[in-house]
From TrEMBL:
Cofactor: Mg(2+)
Record's subcellular location: Cytoplasm
Organism ancestry: Bacteria, Bacillati, Actinomycetota, Actinomycetes, Micrococcales
UniProt entry tagged with the keyword ATP-binding: yes
GO molecular function: UDP-N-acetylmuramoylalanyl-D-glutamate-2,6-diaminopimelate ligase activity
A Pfam family it matches: Mur_ligase_M
Name of the protein in its database record: UDP-N-acetylmuramyl-tripeptide synthetase
Gene name tied to this protein: murE
Claim: Zinc is one of the keywords in the record: no
Enzyme Commission (EC) number: 6.3.2.-
Entry function: Catalyzes the addition of an amino acid to the nucleotide precursor UDP-N-acetylmuramoyl-L-alanyl-D-glutamate (UMAG) in the biosynthesis of bacterial cell-wall peptidoglycan.
Length: 544
C-alpha cells in the first residue's frame, strides 16, 4: 500500500508557499460588514497566516477552526491545535469555554461552518486572486468529466489544476485525495498555491457532501456543470428532493457565473428551471423532447473503444469529437466537458483545432471503464450505485452469440443501505453470472451487506424468470479470480465498485487491494492476454 502522508505533511502541500498575514480584527470587520454577529475574546490584533479545520493538520500560525460535527465538537481538540502552534481559535458558543481556557485569542461566530469559507478566502487572498474554476456536480460522471475538461484545457495550452476523488494537483506532483471535495480552508489554500505555481484554470468535483457542509463557500465558479441525478447518498440527504436541492445550490448566481446543465431527464430540466446563474442546456440523448436544448449531441458512432459524436449548438455550430472510454454515458461526459470549455469563452474554431490535433477526450481515467483485456473483454469500473451499474453493464454486452456477461460487485458499508437490493436486481437483469462480493464494507459486517445485495438479485430472478446465476464469493480477490476462471474468450467481465482504490476497509482494517492488478493477475493465470496499464495519468496505485 502507498505510504500515506501524515495530515500535517499533506496539509503543507495544500498551502501557498508565500505566507500572508491577516488579523483577527480584519476578520471581525469582514463578518460585521457582511451582517454576521461575531466578537473576539483576547487580543484582536492577533495575526494568523493559515486556517485549518483539523487539529491533526494545524501548522504554526494557523487559525484553528473548532466546528461542531456529528461525532465531536472541534473544541475538544483545541488544546492539541494550540500545542501544534495555532495562533487563534475560531469557534461558536458551544466551543467558547474550552477554547478561551487555553489563553489563545478566540474569534466567536454564530455558525462556524457558515463563515469559514469566506474567512479562508480572506486569509489566503483567494477573494482577489483565484484560478478560473470549472465545478462539476451530479451523481455520476464528475471525475470522468473533470479529467476530460483538464485534458481539453491542456490541449489548449493552459496550466491546469485538479481537485477530485482520485487526486489533487495544484500544478505540481499530484497527491492522492482523501475527500472528493476537501474542506474550505484546504480548498482556498490550494487555490492560492495554484496561482503561485502559474495555474490559470482548475477543475473541481463538487460533491453533495461539500455543498451540505459548505466546503466550497467563498469560491466562485466561472463555469459549473451538472451531469445527472440518480439514487445515491440518501443516508445524508434523506430524499431525492433534498439531494436535488443540495446540488442545485451550485448553480445559484452567487456561486457560479454560468451553468451548463445536462437536461436528459426531469431532474436536469428542474435544475435548469431553478438555476439563477446564466444557463446553457445540453441534451446528450437525442430525442425530440430534448431538441430545444441549447446544445444537442447527434450522430454518435462507435470509434475504437469509445465513440465519435457531434455537438450541435444554438447558432448552427457543429463540433466533432472522439471519446476513448467505453460506454455511451462517456459521450454525455465528453459533451459536457466540451460545452463547459466553450462556455468559459474559448472560441469554437480554436477548440475544434485542439480536439482534432490532440484527441484530448480519449484520456484514460483510473478505474473508470478501464479496459484490462480485450479477449475476454475485462473492464474495471467505479460503478457503485444503481444507475452507474445499469449504464456500465448496458455498455458491455458482447455481440458473439452464446457469450456471457460476468459481473463482480458489492455495496459499500455505512452508506445508503437501500441501494443494496436494487444493485443486486440491476446485476441480475443485465448479467448472466452475478458474483456478489465485498466493496469497502467499512465497519459493517460484510456478510450482511452481501446477503442484502444477493437477495435483491435472487428476488429479481424469481419475479421475472431470469436465467442469471448468483454466487456470493469473498474476499474480493477470490471473487475476481473466480470470474476470470469462469470466462471464455468471447465473454465480458465487469469488476464494478471501488476499482481505482488501492485498499478496502473491512471491519475497521485497511486491506491492500487493487481490482485492476487482481484482474490482470487472474486473467494471466487463466492463459489470457492483458493490456499494458496506461502511463499517461496519475494513478494512486503507482504511488509509494
Ligand atoms: C459526513 C461527512 O462528510 N462528515 C465530514 C465532517 O464530519 P463531522 O462534521 O461530523 O466531524 P467530526 O468527525 O464530528 O469532527 C468534528 C470536528 O473535529 C475535528 N477534529 C476531529 C478529530 C481530531 O482529532 N481533530 C479535529 O480537529 C474535525 O476536523 C471536525 O471539524 O467533517 C469532517 C472534517 O472535515 C470530515 O472528515 C467528515 O467526512 C467524513 C470522513 C466522510 O467520510 N465524508 C464523506 C462521506 C464525504 O464527504 N464524501 C464526499 C463524496 C461523496 C461521494 O460522492 O461519494 C466527499 O466530498 O468526499
Ligand atoms: N454520465 C454518466 N451517467 C451515468 N453513469 C455514469 C456517467 N459517467 C460515469 N458513470 C458511471 O459512474 C461511475 C463513476 O464515474 P465517475 O467517477 O466519473 O463519477 P463521480 O460522479 O465522480 O463519482 P464519485 O464522486 O463517486 O467518484 C463510472 O465508473 C461509471 O460506471
Amino acid at each position: 500500500m502507498p505510504e500515506a502522508l501524515t495530515p500535517r505533511a499533506a496539509e503543507a502541500l495544500l498551502r501557498p508557499l508565500k505566507k500572508r498575514t491577516t488579523t483577527l480584527r480584519a476578520m471581525l470587520e469582514y463578518l460585521h460588514e457582511t451582517g454576521r454577529g461575531a466578537n473576539i475574546i483576547g487580543n484582536d490584533e492577533a495575526k494568523v497566516t493559515g486556517i485549518c479545520l483539523d487539529s491533526r493538520a494545524v501548522l504554526p500560525g494557523d487559525l484553528y477552526v473548532a466546528a461542531p460535527g456529528a461525532r465531536f465538537h472541534g473544541a475538544q481538540f483545541a488544546a492539541a491545535a494550540a500545542q501544534a502552534g495555532a495562533a487563534a481559535i475560531l469557534t461558536d458558543i458551544e466551543g467558547e469555554a474550552a477554547a478561551s481556557a487555553l489563553g489563545l485569542p478566540v474569534l466567536l461566530a454564530g455558525d462556524v461552518r457558515e463563515v469559514v469559507g469566506e474567512l479562508a478566502a480572506l486569509v489566503y487572498g483567494t477573494d482577489e486572486d483565484c484560478p478560473e474554476l470549472f465545478g462539476l456536480t451530479g451523481t455520476n460522471g464528475k471525475t470522468t468529466t473533470s479529467y476530460m475538461i483538464r485534458s481539453v484545457l491542456r490541449a489548449l495550452g493552459r496550466e491546469t489544476g485538479l481537485v477530485g476523488t482520485i487526486e489533487i494537483s495544484a500544478g505540481q506532483t499530484p497527491i492522492p485525495s482523501i475527500l472528493t471535495t476537501p474542506e474550505a480552508p484546504q480548498l482556498h489554500g490550494l487555490m492560492a498555491r495554484m496561482r503561485e505555481l502559474g495555474v490559470t484554470s482548475a477543475t473541481m468535483e463538487v460533491s453533495s457532501h461539500s455543498l451540505s457542509y459548505r466546503r466550497v463557500d467563498g469560491l466562485r465558479f466561472a463555469v459549473s456543470g451538472f451531469t445527472n441525478l440518480t439514487q445515491d447518498h440518501l443516508d445524508l440527504h434523506g430524499s431525492m428532493q433534498e439531494y436535488f436541492a443540495t446540488k442545485a445550490a451550485l448553480f445559484d448566481l452567487e456561486r457560479s457565473d454560468l451553468a451548463v446543465l445536462t437536461v436528459d431527464d426531469d431532474w436536469g430540466r428542474a435544475m435548469a428551471a431553478q438555476a439563477t446563474a446564466e444557463v446553457w442546456t445540453l441534451a446528450t440523448t437525442a430525442t425530440a423532447t430534448h431538441a430545444d436544448a441549447d446544445w444537442v449531441v447527434a450522430n454518435v458512432h462507435p470509434a475504437g473503444l469509445g465513440h465519435r459524436f457531434e455537438l450541435h449548438g444554438p447558432e448552427e455550430q457543429v463540433i466533432t469529437a472522439v471519446t476513448g472510454l467505453p460506454g455511451d454515458f462517456n459521450v454525455s461526459n465528453a459533451a459536457l466537458a466540451v460545452v463547459m470549455v466553450l462556455a468559459s469563452g474559448v472560441e469554437l474554431r480554436q477548440l475544434q483545432a485542439a480536439l482534432d490535433a490532440a484527441n484530448p477526450l480519449t484520456v484514460q481515467v483510473p478505474g473508470r471503464m478501464q479496459v484490462i483485456a480485450e479477449s475476454p473483454a475485462a473492464i474495471v469500473d467505479f460503478a457503485h450505485n444503481p444507475d452507474a451499474l445499469t449504464r456500465a453493464l448496458g455498455s458491455v454486452r458482447p455481440t458473439e452469440p452464446g457469450s456471457k456477461v460476468i459481473v463482480v460487485f458489492g455495496a459499500t458499508g455505512e452508506r445508503d443501505a437501500t441501494k443494496r437490493p436494487i444493485m443486486g436486481a440491476v446485476a441480475a437483469r443485465h448479467a448472466d453470472v452475478v458474483i456478489v462480493t465485498d466493496d469497502d464494507p467499512h465497519s459493517e459486517d460484510p456478510a450482511r451487506i452481501r446477503e442484502a445485495v444477493a437477495a435483491g438479485a435472487r428476488a429479481e430472478i424469481l419475479a421475472n424468470g431470469l436465467g442469471a446465476e448468483v454466487h456470493e464469493i469473498h474476499p474480493r480477490a477470490a471473487a475476481i479470480a473466480a470470474a476470470a476462471a469462469m470466462a471464455g474468450e468471447h465473454d465480458t467481465i465487469l469488476v464494478a465498485g471501488r476499482g481505482h482504490e488501492v485498499f478496502q476497509e473491512v471491519m475497521g482494517v485497511n486491506l491492500e487491494l487493487d481490482d485492476r492488478r487482481e484482474l490482470r493477475r487472474a486473467l494471466l493465470a487463466n492463459g489470457f492476454h492483458t493490456l499494458e496499464p496506461a502511463s499517461d495519468s496519475f494513478d494512486p496505485a503507482d504511488e509509494g
